[in-house]
């Protein structure tokens, strides 16, 4: 059995006014899996974690004054989350839209070889998803974009 407390080196946390609704949405729209939900005696969310592939996300409410949903900041974001898919980007995009995600950037091929899209969840967090669909060299990416690229992996 896998160790439920083993985590990748990096994860993220997002804050929502309605964290329980967010958990439901993230499962339905993006295919995240709920792996831990801790509630207090009154049913309030204390902590939750979700997994997608080899990554994890903590989802919480606005439990202290220095965390906020985009709904509390006029819809502004200070970050976005990017998720890399191994396959199925078109079906994933359709699933997200069907669940109510608001399209920010339509599904399109990028100069660096990925097909990507961006959406907002019901509280305004920006999510992007991508799948590598072509192997592109740094030189080809520079030529296609007109940009100078350092550190191409």
UniProtKB/TrEMBL annotation:
Superkingdom of this protein's organism: Bacteria
Record-annotated VOC domain positions: 7-132
Gene Ontology MF terms: dioxygenase activity
Matches recorded under InterPro entries: Glyas_Bleomycin-R_OHBP_Dase, Glyas_Fos-R_dOase_dom, VOC_core
Keyword Oxidoreductase: yes
Record flagged with keyword Oxidoreductase: yes
Keywords from the named record: Dioxygenase, Oxidoreductase
Protein name listed in UniProt: Glyoxalase/bleomycin resistance/extradiol dioxygenase family protein
């Amino acid at each position: 059995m896998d160790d439920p407390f083993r985590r990748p080196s990096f994860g993220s946390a997002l804050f929502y006014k309605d964290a329980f609704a967010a958990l439901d949405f993230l499962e339905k729209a993006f295919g995240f899996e709920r792996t831990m939900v801790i509630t207090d005696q009154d049913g309030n969310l204390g902590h939750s974690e979700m997994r997608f592939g080899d990554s994890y996300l903590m989802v919480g409410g606005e439990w202290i004054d220095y965390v906020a949903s985009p709904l509390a900041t006029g819809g502004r974001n200070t970050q976005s989350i990017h998720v890399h898919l191994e396959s199925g980007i078109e079906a994933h995009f359709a699933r997200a839209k069907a669940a109510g995600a608001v399209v920010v950037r339509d599904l399109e091929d990028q100069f660096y070889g990925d097909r990507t899209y961006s959406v907002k969840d019901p509280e305004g967090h920006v999510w992007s998803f991508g799948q590598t669909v072509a192997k592109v060299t740094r030189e080809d990416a520079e030529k296609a974009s007109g940009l100078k690229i350092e550190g191409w992996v």
